[in-house]
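User: I'm putting together notes for a lab meeting next week and I want to include a structural view of one of the chains we've been expressing. I don't have a solved structure, so I'd like a prediction I can at least talk through. The sequence is below, exactly as it appears in our construct file.
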Amino acid sequence: MEHKAIIDKIKKGEFENTYLLHGEEPYYIDLICDAIVENALREEEKDFNQSIIYGRDADPGNLIAELKAYPMMAERRLVVLKEAQDMKGIEDLEPYFENVTPTTVFVICHKYKNVDSRKNVFKKAAKSGVTYKSAKIPDYKLADWIITQVRASGYGITEKAAVLLTEFLGNDLARITNELDKLYLLVEKGTTINDIHIEENIGISKDYNFFELSNAVGSRNVLKAFTIVDYFVHNPKAGPLVPVVSNLYRLFKNLMLIHFLENKSKESVASALKVHPFVATQLMGAAKIYPPKKVAANIHLLHEYDLKSKGIGNSGFEDGELMKELVYQLMH
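Assistant: Thanks for the context. Below is the predicted structure for the 332-residue chain, given as structure tokens.
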């Protein structure tokens, strides 16, 4: 069952005895758990009928006692086991699932990894209610996820702005959502969010970032590349050398892959490289500028500067000097 369907039922007051929420992506686990906590009990019922327990502190015997207790002046009790992945002896909860308390809603939040479905305790937990597996969204689908979320909130967003957010915030759905929520407060509903909105309201520079440096090097735009490098040199926190090397390595690795693809259509490149089609278009342009031999030489060069950035083979050059030297050699 999809998370939206689960939350819709919760908001209608339709509750299961058990919610087994697990997986690598914590965002949806928190989303479902928060919906249950918000809707299962009225505020005045929570003092006597709601227990939130953390896995590292949980004792199986005491937890079962909480689960077996009956509600006090309420329709149900709510027991939430957070960070269940940290609980020792979770297998000892198996007897409870053989005879669940019908007036208890038990929420198990098992984050950052899947439960071992071979264990009887999880098999029986699944049979007593709803199981939701929260899978991590692949990086190449993250921009599309952002576009979908923004549209569902009544806004639009350009592909460039979505890609910029993924580059800056990484694969952290909660952080992305928080930043977008702040933006919604500042931008009129119905607006198409662009890179200027991102820069002005979230603090991500639309011109001076890893994504734009890769684009400048990829298009062999020497002036733009060195303008960004100069900005990084004077603002070291905005562009440290190690991630600069990492991002440029990713650029040339992708260019090498493009050169050896039989089908060089945008869709094929996006699928093979696992990147957004917007990014695929830019990479295809860069592949026309850098032939395979130059790409191979640049990959070797980036390996050399990766070592230098970590102090190996570096004769005392500052990071800024190394960055300028690297970018120059990549484009010439």
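A couple of points you could mention at the meeting. The domain at 210-331 is CATH 1.20.272.10 (Zinc Finger, Delta Prime; domain 3). The chain has a mean pLDDT of 92.

User: Perfect, that's what I needed.
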